[in-house]
Amino acid sequence: MSNPLRVKLVNAGRILEDGGQGDYVLGHVTVRLPDDPDHFLMKPASIGLEEMTVDNIITVDIEGEKVAGHFPRHNEVYIHSEILRARPDIQCVVHTHAPHAVAFSALRRPFKMVAQRSAIFADGLPVFNKTTDLIVDKARGKAVAKTLGKHRALLLQNHGIVTCGESIEEAVFLALSLDQACMMQLWVEAAGGAKAVSSAADLKKKRPRMLRPDAYRHTFEYLVRKLAR
Fold it and tell me: Which of 21, 33, 131, 169 is deepest in the core (most CB within 10 A)?
């Protein structure tokens, strides 16, 4: 097992909690083992996102079964296992109850390009609305993965968010960005609705500038430094 990978997963949990996405002991983040793609590291149940350590992280297989670690496994493991099964390009999956995204999903209104962060999701933001219940079996996990499709983020209706990426840094960046974008739209909706949004031409230019591995990495490293101050 890669100890640096565990350290990065620990930092991901701390960043998500510091970004307002902690929900007591709920929420979870996983990363695929690079030398064993049918297994992944996962934040265990019964602790907060910020309470992960390199020693309490568990290992889970692609069927959703815990194979190593002393702490219990989250019931919603199938969000992770089924996305990782369906998407070999994905290495990390985040699920949180991001508060602004949950509130926005309850409006059932179109996601609009009202802020810079909104542009990140200009290719579409799927909404999983088959149930607002927990994703506690393979069938629901597969349905979430199907709704996600080729995207890297989705809303779970009245429940939370799922983001994923080719790295921990990317999945965390998308989780923070999605909640911020939803927050901005909630403000705009409360003020009477958007009177101006980004044009298609502007989105085409600025979106690639935001979706860069170095941007993910620099943001993640900054947030780790911020936590240390």
Answer: 21
